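During the reporting period the student researcher (J.K.) took over the structure-prediction task from the postdoctoral fellow and processed the backlog of single-chain submissions. One of the processed entries is reproduced below for the supervisory committee.
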Amino acid sequence: MPAMRALLAQLEQRCGWRSLTVDGHGCAQEWRWLDTQADGPATILLPGAVGDGAMFVRTLLALGERMRLIAVTYPALSDPVQLADGLAAVVAHLGLPPGRVAGSSFSAYWLQFYGLRHPQNVTSLVLGNGFVDGTDLAAHPMFERQFVESISAQDLHAQWLARVRATPNAPLQRLQEIMLAERQSPVNLQARFLGVVRSQICPPLPLPDTAITVLDCDDDPLIAPQVRERLRRQYPGARHISLPSGGHYPHVLNPRAYEALLAQPA
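J.K. obtained the following structure tokens:
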């Protein structure tokens, strides 16, 4: 994995990790982020269940010198309200004006609650490869609710790492392996999986349709066609973008299309 490690090292040398302890809803949790600190409006990037903010390593390196990107690692929380309020605390700490936030998979789910609770912070939400509630992924054996709630954090982490290591060697596989083997704790991974399987539909957002983009990929192996359509129906007036390729991680597997989307004005 030397090439991927080199990219991650280059990113972290250029940006550096910053952190904030957020004390909300009765618990203190650390939030961390990478900030390219370029001029102009900021776009916040949120990873899915696997990995930290550096899952966007290619995006940050490709666009970070000409636009401000802030890739956030969120703590071991499963509740979308806690996550939404924690992100709002980070935004306040950074003194950011209203801006664009792009979520992937699980974070695309709880990002809807950020728009619900903190609409004053939002000019644009990008819901990438997301879902409406936990029933959308229940058919996948690794996201079956009883399984996730009964397995230990260590065993869940070990099983998911084994699945990643069994896939063909490729940039996404190498990135996920580094994340799981070295950077993401079992407790953090389990919290995100619990957030997926326990997720419930978000109430209507107090945002204009033009502020929402629903992004999906035709070849997503996790988000089935009917799940993609259900999220589109949830936001019928939103901008709907379907990429022909990109799998569940278009920022890794179809970076040009993903970067082109972010490069557009929010």
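The committee noted the following: The longest strand covers residues 27-35.
J.K. will present the remaining backlog at the next meeting.
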